[in-house]
Design goal:
Number of helices: 17
Bound molecules: adenosine monophosphate
Structural class: alpha+beta
Distance between the termini: 37 Å
Number of strands: 22
InterPro entries: GH3 (IPR004993), GH3_C (IPR055378), GH3_M (IPR055377)
Helix content: 25-40%
Strand content: 15-25%
Radius of gyration: 25 Å
GO cellular component, one term: cytoplasm
Keywords: Ligase
Pfam families: GH3 (PF03321), GH3_C (PF23572), GH3_M (PF23571)
Strand order of the largest sheet: 9-10-11-16-15-14-12-13
GO molecular function: acid-amino acid ligase activity
């Protein structure tokens, strides 16, 4: 740019890029080169995104003043909520917040998730514990690196304060539900702790123990009886309102892939507690807030804050088709934040303060209206993602690569994989990936090939998992936020029946391709399930190399 700050020069000269273009610069900075190869400011940390590139997590540059931008967005949430709900300052929030392990690059730059960075920042730890910032979880418990111990203690503190809790939540709905299912498994222990005033010996993290013990302070058999009576009821329908009777809403991201968790949350809240999505953000930049927080999750729109980054949009006029990673996006095609049109779909592009220039975030948004002159967007989907339970995001290509590797095991046993498809099953907690496989003995293998016993199919499950990317493997083996992968074998002809179904629903026979992912709860899933003959689960954790 030769020092120019002219917007039209920026638009005509700066290319639109994906991570692969930025990655070599990030790698050089990580190895010790100066930040100025990318950015005018010092890059102080690299934020580990849940997006991956060639199997590795993407690292986003961040500068020290970025924390103030994030704080700014957070600071808007409670004033917005208080416009709609009274009395939020009269109690505490039980928010289940977790940190993840961090590492240092060769040059000593911390590599961590954006939320870990925030919870460890002085801005979070020295926040004024005013009424809006008052959480039941002590900071030491949030900062506990063992997420199981952290979850146990956060639930314990939340139960101790049950009458005082006015807000429940987590960042993503998946984490909130995982905590509820953890509670289902561990409430006996939690009740014992409340009854005796002593914390379970499985909590070994010293800081976490001390902080929780001071919460417990003394035996409370009366509270223990109350919690026991609620938790031992046969159905957990509506349990959240019974455990936390003064709660006014549940906050979590419930848009995008998280929408699959709305029915479970409605079950636990019996549809009586509003489900609120407050913000839209990423490791690259924070984006915007929901100004109508009490609307239904399916109607949520986010108003982008123009001071978070410089926003541009790639119009998606040809049936939502997005340019592939290597495919150039014409820079002249991009439209600015003030020029987007209601009803149209766009891919989000950001220029951040920390060294991303015209960077394609990969999210598809639709304009739903304006707040004053600021456009509001519905989150439609993330580019290419077909399977996602928690932070994992698996695209069709990754799934295909993993299945291709696993099917070699079948081939060695005289069988071939004729067809496959997949879906994310969130009826289990944590949710897990399910693959439907139609398998046939190879004609040359004589008497129907060697028998396919459970062990073979279980090793196929492991092989698929071990070929999925590192975020998936971390969620499975470390965070335990994704359950073991399942292969369901279907009878011969099941995929022909699937094709008949989809063509009868208006698909073209000529252009028919087996969908590599099907909708949970849809007719396709019902059909394949009715033809399933056996099911196998991954018997062990995938190796979590490179995490
Ligand atoms: P990460 O890269 O791990 O920081 O994840 C950021 C991505 O998560 C975004 O680009 C979106 O795809 C998704 N995301 C974040 N907030 C929301 C939201 N409120 N609704 C839907 N998706 C979201």
């Amino acid at each position: 740019m030769n020092g120019s700050v002219d917007i039209s020069a920026f638009k005509s000269q700066v290319p639109v890029v994906t991570y692969d273009v930025v990655q070599p610069y990030i790698a050089r900075i990580a190895a010790g080169e100066r930040s100025s190869i990318l950015c005018g400011e010092q890059i102080v940390e690299l934020l580990r995104s849940s997006g991956t590139s060639q199997g590795e997590p993407r690292l986003m540059p961040s500068i020290s003043e970025d924390i103030y931008r994030r704080m700014y967005l957070y600071s808007l949430i409670m004033p917005i909520m208080s416009k709609y709900i009274r009395g939020l300052g009269e109690g505490k929030a039980m928010y289940l917040l977790f940190v993840k392990a961090e590492t240092l690059t060769n040059a000593g730059i911390p590599v961590r998730s954006v939320l870990t960075s925030y919870y460890k920042s002085p801005q979070f730890l020295q926040r004024k514990h005013d009424l809006y910032n008052s959480y039941t979880s002590p900071d030491e418990v949030i900062l506990c690196p063992d997420s199981q111990q952290s979850m146990y203690c956060q639930l314990l503190c939340g139960l101790v304060e049950r009458q005082n809790v006015v807000r429940l939540g987590a960042v993503f709905a998946s984490a909130f539900l995982r905590s509820i299912s953890f509670l289902e498994k561990h409430w006996h222990d939690l009740v014992t702790d409340i009854r005796t005033g002593r914390i379970n010996p499985s909590i070994t993290n010293a800081a976490c123990r001390v902080a929780t013990e001071s919460f417990l302070a003394q035996p409370n058999p009366e509270l223990a009886d109350e919690v026991e009576a609620i938790c031992s009821s046969e159905s957990w329908k509506g349990v959240l309102g019974r455990l936390w009777p003064n709660v006014k809403y549940i906050e979590a991201v419930l848009t995008g892939t998280m929408a699959q968790y709305v029915p479970m949350l409605e079950f636990y809240s019996d549809g009586r507690i509003p489900l609120v999505c407050t913000m839209y953000a990423s490791s690259e930049s924070y984006f915007g807030v929901n100004l109508r927080p009490l609307c239904s999750p399916k109607d949520v729109s986010y108003t982008i804050l123009p001071n978070m980054a410089y926003f541009e949009f790639v119009p998606l006029d040809d049936g939502l088709r997005l340019a592939e990673d290597g495919e150039a996006v014409e820079k002249e095609k991009l439209v600015g934040l003030v020029d987007v049109k209601v009803g149209c779909y766009y891919e989000l592009v950001v220029t951040t303060f920390a060294g991303l220039y015209r960077y394609r975030v990969g999210d598809v948004l639709q304009v739903t209206g304006f707040y004053n002159r600021a456009p509001q967007f519905k989150f439609i989907c993330r580019r290419n993602v077909i399977l996602s339970v928690d932070a994992d995001k698996t695209n069709e290509e990754d799934l295909h690569g993993s299945v291709s590797r696993a099917k070699k095991i079948l081939e060695d046993r005289g069988h071939i994989l004729l067809e496959y498809t997949s879906f994310t099953d969130t009826s289990t907690v944590p949710g897990h990936y399910v693959l439907f496989w139609e398998v046939k003995a190879t004609p040359t293998s004589g008497s129907g090939g060697a028998r396919l016993d459970a062990q073979v199919l279980e090793s196929c499950c492991v092989a698929v998992e071990e070929s999925l990317d590192c975020v998936y493997r971390r969620c499975r083996a470390h965070d335990r936020s994704v359950g073991p992968l399942e292969i369901r074998l279907v009878e011969a002809g099941a995929f022909d029946a699937l094709m008949d179904l989809l063509v009868s629903q208006g698909g073209s026979i000529n252009q028919y391709k087996t969908p590599r992912c099907i909708e949970p709860g849809g007719a396709a899933l019902e059909l394949l399930d009715s033809k399933a003959t056996a099911s196998f689960f991954s018997p062990r954790d995938p190796e979590a190399t490179g995490v």
